[in-house]
């Protein structure tokens, strides 16, 4: 005898569309400025910052696309969990893009240390100021949604990295302009690349954790299993699975073996309440089964 219960949550992605559109427009406009000036002046620091700006625009564009895809989710098309994982895939793609850019900047900067080119300081400073202003706008626009959505967090981290990069470009441009120090530009290029890498690794790890359907880090699965097994009327809890569909959407399923005198409806309600209140999981599918039915269930080992 089985009973199921689910109390749905919803992805907050749609709430972030306005933020993402603003960040996309601002980033695209100033990306063109930095690309043109960076190539014209051969400033590695500015080129690296422009490359990060490109990944910002691509990343925010993918984030927008992922949310729009998620909004088209439909059970009728066989997508019983919708397209929410598109957000996580977009975040992982953002991380891979940032890995590539950071690696390129570091390699290119090291190659330039032998004979650093002369970089004109004035256009670099002006472009850095423009980029800094653009990144500040995008930073404050995206900050509110970064804690709610891994997808928005990916775009936010790229903007944060680019914000720091713009400050670095400004410093290197001023050093070149005021002191004529030709090593400022490649050194700052390396610093920007190294700054991005650990944050990118963290984003990639979080994305892969969701894609591999690991339990959320905050959830102790063994403790949850014991808590379910200790509920009144429950003889044993087994076949517990906990995973994250996308940011803010955590899901669980479990089988509860009951005593012969237990009321299945009461057991189901107690388990639902436990998961919602203690573990903040409101979407759970729970199968309540009498002791004799659990023997066959445990023959399945995955």
3D architecture notes:
This protein is mainly α. Helix content is 63%, strand content 10%. The radius of gyration is 25 Å and the shape is elongated. The longest helix has 30 residues, at 150-179. It has a three-stranded mixed β-sheet. It folds into two domains: 13-211, Cation efflux protein transmembrane domain (Alpha-lytic protease prodomain-like, Up-down Bundle), CATH 1.20.1510.10; 221-297, Alpha-Beta Plaits (2-Layer Sandwich). It is found in: Membrane.
Key traits:
single chain; 302 residues; mainly alpha; Alpha-lytic protease prodomain-like; Alpha-Beta Plaits; 2 domains; 9 helices; 3 strands
Oligomer: single chain
CA radius of gyration is: 25 Å
The overall pLDDT, averaged over residues, is 80
Total individual domains: 2
At CATH's second level, what is the architecture of the largest domain? Answer: Up-down Bundle
Query: What's the SSE pattern?
Result: HHHHHHHEEHEH
Q: Major sheet: order of its strands?
A: 1-2-3
Estimated structural class: mainly alpha
- Counting DSSP E segments of at least 2 residues, the number of strands comes to 3
